Amino acid sequence: MRMGHGFTLFNTPIGRCAIAWGSCGITAVLLPEGSDAVLRARMAQRCPAAREMAPPPSVRGAIEAIGAVLSGQSSSDLSGIALDMDGIADFDRRVLMLARSIPPGATLTYGELAARLGSPGAARAVGRALGRNPFAIVVPCHRVLAAGGKPGGFSAHGGTATKLRLLALEARPSYDSFAPATPEAS
Questions:
Q1: Dihedral of CA 127/129/132/133: which sign?
Q2: Is 17 a known active-site residue?
């Protein structure tokens, strides 16, 4: 186990989230689940070496930036948050890095992302890679849509409704009508 592997739960405008870190950066970010217990259990599955503890300053900065984004401050920049991609397959890593470059308020389709990776026709593989995204919101996989601009799937708790809510927070007016009126219970 690397020194300093930890995780913490934190409050955001959409509910309690979790973040884990190690010596090389953030190892996971989880969006709200049904309860803190479920969030902790999911974090234990994703990052078994991490122990719940107070976050170091760099992680506190990441938490503040994530909170700003989730409060609708789409100008907040998460690109400076160091991510530990150790153990992530090369194709998935390339997908995540390209998805991370999609600016707030913009979207791409799975097919467009595949084409930009030089793998046209790999839209499903891109979707599977994004479904394994361990860095929810920091790698904004919610900005990747199905063909025709349809929302497609979303692996975080709440599924497509959560994806649409995140897009609405980023001032995507065409998605405002799909956003839930109130946050899901946490």
A1: negative
A2: no
